[in-house]
């Protein structure tokens, strides 16, 4: 200003101040098992390579539905666990939204794959060599790593044939603390027999199975002594006796 020579004057210029852009790294596709939570871990910066702090909000949307809102950022690090335990298997679109009053809002997308868990089935059949009339004890375990799996059911197959009840319905066994103990009274036919345990659980786990081979021998028949027979020449001879197996069960059928 110069009060003696010049009149006072003012000039104004408008400038545009934009919010500083945020840089977010590309988030790779995520694969988790059914019943697990989705985790996200990445660091955000501005275009000057400064980490973003302060009042920053992170919103997570899965297939357009908000699953997590108002998550905080510490030192530019986004480390989140998103509750996805109740979501079914499938492929989902994940949208990550970063908001801060001093920075431009930024969005990025990734893909979430939810798959069925893997269970491990074991089968132990005893004894491993029996007669066709002998019962066998079957012990089955189903584990997910070190944890027992108690939901789902077991189906048994003998040489590929599914065990069914008298009405023709598939027999399904329930698990207790990841275990099933049952007894089969009769194994047919004789020969090398494969007993297969199949674990089914459409909601959480993939189908899994285990097989054990046992030897099934035909049940022996007891030797009977027939008393001497006296008959007359030219007459028919009649034999009348009972046939039993080694367990004293009468032998049925054609002999």
Please tell me about this protein's structure.
This protein is mainly beta. The chain is built from no helices and 19 strands. It has strands spanning 22-23, 30-33, 38-43, 45-46, 56-62, 65-71, 77-82, 90-100, 103-115, 120-126, 129-131, 136-144, 147-148, 153-158, 161-162, 173-174, 179-184, 191-200, 208-217. The strands form five sheets. Strands 11, 14, 15, 16, 18 and 19 form a six-stranded mixed beta sheet that branches. It has a five-stranded mixed beta sheet with strand order 2-9-8-5-6, with no helix packed on it. Strands 10, 12, 13 and 17 form a four-stranded antiparallel beta sheet that branches. It is rod-shaped, with a radius of gyration of 38 Å.
